[in-house]
From TrEMBL:
Marked site: Important for catalytic activity: 96, 333
Oligomer status and interactors: Homodimer.
Ranges annotated as biased composition (Low complexity): 1-22
Entry's cofactor comment: Binds 1 Mg(2+) ion per subunit. Can also utilize other divalent metal cations, such as Ca(2+), Mn(2+) and Co(2+).
Name of the protein described by the UniProt record: transketolase
Sequence positions that bind thiamine diphosphate: 136, 185-187, 227, 256, 333, 508
Entry binding sites for substrate: 96, 333, 427, 454, 532, 540, 544, 591
Protein's organism: Arabidopsis thaliana x Arabidopsis arenosa
Source domain of life: Eukaryota
Enzyme kind, highest EC tier: transferase
EC annotation from Swiss-Prot or TrEMBL: 2.2.1.1
PANTHER family given in the database record: TRANSKETOLASE (PTHR43522), TRANSKETOLASE 1-RELATED (PTHR43522:SF2)
Single GO term (MF): transketolase activity
């Protein structure tokens, strides 16, 4: 079988500075998957393969064959990638053909010559990771997965591109397509995810590798475009990557100078290379990304030789390469070429084949990745078995991280509280929980956006993760909320037992909402520790006081919005958050001190809503008072006052609406009986959505305007968040 590596390409230094057109090419006659919704077991990750294949050794310095080969087969493979993308977009009548057509050469070299992976086990732990940050060009990734032999992208999947139920959706989705590492599409998110993946590799390598036993040893590759470069999140994340010295992160910048509105000269003229050098990256420019195969190979080899910093390989390409009338134009970015232009492109590139055809010699060449991948995993399994004999404790910890098999009884490490425990802010109680969990969960790590001393998120038994201390578990994100969330998504997606948390003031989720939404969409169980959760933060005023935030996250699918009222509920919230590995959790925590309330429980938190006190009988209270967080205390005091007047009052904590909604109808009826219409809620935030709980005849007490600058106790009185207000509302209803 011929290799696709060629020594006949012109040298790197001899290339002209830019290739903006698509010259006609002469015709040539050489023209298992694990369910993404199920976390893989360690045995699955270590699955042995019966397919015969010689043992392959990985060479990190020289990953590319040095043999001279048939350039025509390279061209044919690259054009196969192009036309699989063209044909899929054309059949769907929608999509983005331009990027796959321009990036096919770099994609081919990465997947065919450089990356280490096992197509029949997309979750093999020590695989290289690939992220398409420019997710709109996803047909590039689908074509590569198809050629490499992934069961998740067969020919029928390509033909179903962008259709209902397809495994080839309009942007890469890790939960739909095995082989896709993270969900991308919103520009800049993917490169930030890649930083998280590379951070995870560096961290685990520092913790578990031993001399002669480097069991964590893989690269993270990403392709990003001009749009990603323009998004602020990309600069935030890449700044951290340079600071952390993530030497196994290699990013390919598709420098095609075209965005949706036209040439990037209208809005994007900065010197990207100089910026990345300033961020601490090694920078290489490949001036001919269209046909300069050897230039791309040489750049990758150079990048892998740089160990102490990430590398940006700027590759100048032509968007829509090969299209006679649309190449190098915005019209090829986000629309099908059209039947006439597809035919013209086939003629221009000398492609005599019909739609979705993979020539036999290309198919035969790529088929070697199946036995090669099996051999790579078999070799790694043997290496790990040897490691396990020598280092059983470390091996057990790594298994826990790879498989998310949490240590037995881990939840018993969480602190316990009684009503006699001293009052404290839930942000402080949160720190007690974080430090308790870090002692028993090997994959627990995280940090804050320059607010650790205020969010109370430092792990006291660990130091800071830094370039020269990557084994530590405190992550210093600086004032970079947006990238912080996306980096944590990448960490989570690297290994299911890595459990990252990140923190800032709750109001600043506005800076990172896109990353949080992708946590939910990607089924990435990041724990968001959000302090200063209401007007109760006081004097900092309305710029820092969240109002609509709790309601907005309750509206977001697949995320848990938890607002604990005391120490017991805070511990319960962490138990829930750790257990939910396929959905993120937001913990909204107070700045002000709160008492530990009688009746709160971990079991109640797991149900989302539960009764903390009740003097009624027969499930027929006169009135139901509901609260969350710091206002549950107000509801409890109002209940006591009403009972003194002879009322039958039930007080309910609704710490998580999402969890409560998931309970049986019988349970929900036992907490909020439908026959009781006299209901009052109190929450220091928007009342939006509370009608779901209080009903059409109930009353919701909250804050539906911006806050103000004043001490917390003054604000609560001015905004009517008082025991007297709850009592008055209850009397109006019963």
């Amino acid at each position: 079988m011929a290799s696709l590596t060629s020594s006949s390409q012109a040298s790197f230094l001899s290339r002209p500075s830019s290739y903006r057109s698509s010259p006609p090419l002469p015709p040539t006659d050489h023209h298992v998957s694990l369910s993404p919704r199920d976390l893989p077991s360690f045995s699955a990750l270590r699955a042995s393969f019966t397919r015969s294949s010689p043992t392959l050794r990985r060479s990190r310095l020289l990953p590319i064959s040095a043999a001279a080969t048939d350039v025509s087969l390279v061209d044919k493979s690259v054009n196969t990638i192009r036309f699989l993308a063209i044909d899929a977009v054309e059949k769907a009548k929608s999509g983005h053909p331009g990027l796959p057509m321009g990036c096919a050469p770099m994609g081919h070299i990465l997947f065919d010559e450089v990356m280490q992976y096992n197509p029949k086990n997309p979750y093999w732990f020590n695989r290289d990771r690939f992220i398409l940050s420019a997710g709109h060009g996803c047909m590039l990734q689908y074509a590569l997965l198809h050629l490499a032999g992934y069961d998740s992208v067969r020919e029928e999947d390509l033909k179903n591109f962008r259709q209902w139920g397809s495994r080839t959706p309009g942007h890469p989705e890790n939960f739909e397509t095995p082989g896709v590492e993270v969900t991308t599409g919103p520009l800049g998110q993917g490169i930030a995810n890649a930083v998280g993946l590379a951070l995870a590799e560096k961290h685990l390598a520092a913790r578990f590798n031993k001399p002669g036993n480097e069991i964590v040893d893989h690269y993270t590759y990403a392709i990003l475009g001009d749009g990603c470069q323009m998004e602020g999140i990309a600069n935030e994340a890449c700044s951290l990557a340079g600071h952390w010295g993530l030497g196994k992160l290699i990013a390919f910048y598709d420098d095609n100078h075209i965005s949706i509105d036209g040439d990037t000269e209208i809005a994007f003229t900065e010197n990207v290379e100089t910026r990345f050098q300033g961020l601490g990256w090694h920078v290489i420019w490949v001036k001919n990304g269209n046909t300069g195969y050897d230039e791309i190979r040489a750049a990758i080899k150079e990048a892998k030789a740089v160990k102490d910093k990430p590398t940006l390989i700027k590759i100048t390409t032509t968007i829509g390469y090969g299209s006679p009338n649309k190449a190098n134009s915005y019209s090829v970015h986000g629309s099908a070429l059209g039947e006439k232009e597809v035919d013209a492109t086939r003629k221009n590139l000398g492609w005599p084949y019909g739609p979705f055809h993979v020539p036999e010699d290309v198919k035969s060449h790529w088929s070697r990745h199946i036995p090669k991948g099996a051999a790579l995993e078999t070799e790694w399994n043997a290496k790990f078995a040897d490691y396990e004999k020598k280092y059983p404790q470390e091996a057990a910890e790594l298994k826990s991280i790879v498989t998310v098999n949490l240590p037995t009884g881990w939840e018993k490490s969480l602190p316990t509280y009684t009503p006699e425990s001293p009052a404290d802010a839930t942000r402080n109680l949160s720190q007690q929980c974080l430090n308790a969990l870090a002692k028993v969960l090997p994959g627990f790590l995280g940090g804050s956006a320059d607010l650790a001393s205020s969010n109370m998120t430092l792990l006291k038994m660990f130091g800071d993760f830094q370039k020269n201390a990557p084994e530590e578990r405190n992550l210093r994100f600086g004032v970079r909320e947006h990238s912080m969330g996306a980096i944590c998504n990448g960490i989570t997606c690297h290994s299911p037992g890595l459990i990252p948390y990140c923190a800032t003031f709750f109001v600043f989720t506005d800076y990172m909402r896109a990353a949080i939404r992708l946590s939910a969409l990607s089924q990435a169980g990041v724990i968001y520790v959000m302090t200063h959760d209401s007007i109760g933060l006081g004097e900092d005023g309305p710029t820092h006081q969240p109002i609509e935030h709790v309601a907005s996250f309750r509206a977001m699918p697949n995320i848990l919005m938890l607002r604990p009222a005391d120490g017991t509920e805070t511990a319960g919230a962490y138990k829930v958050a750790v257990e939910n590995r396929k959905r993120p959790s937001i913990l909204a925590l107070s700045r002000q001190k709160l008492p530990h309330l009688p009746g709160t429980s971990l079991e109640g938190v797991e149900k989302g809503g539960y009764v903390i006190s009740d003097n009624s009988t027969g499930n027929k209270p006169d009135v139901i008072l509901m609260g969350t967080g710091s206002e549950l205390e107000i509801a409890a005091k109002a209940g006591e006052k009403l009972r003194e007047e002879g009322r039958a009052v039930r007080v309910v904590s609704l710490v998580s609406w999402e969890l409560f909604d998931e309970q049986s109808e019988e349970y929900k009826e036992s907490v909020l009986p439908s026959e009781v219409s006299a209901r009052v809620s109190i929450e220091a935030g928007s009342t939006f959505g509370w009608e779901k709980m209080v009903g059409s005849k109930g009353k919701a007490i909250g804050v539906d305007s911006f806050g103000a600058s004043a001490p917390a106790d003054v604000l609560y009185k001015k905004f009517g968040l008082t025991v007297d207000a709850v009592v008055a509302a209850a009397k109006d209803l019963c």
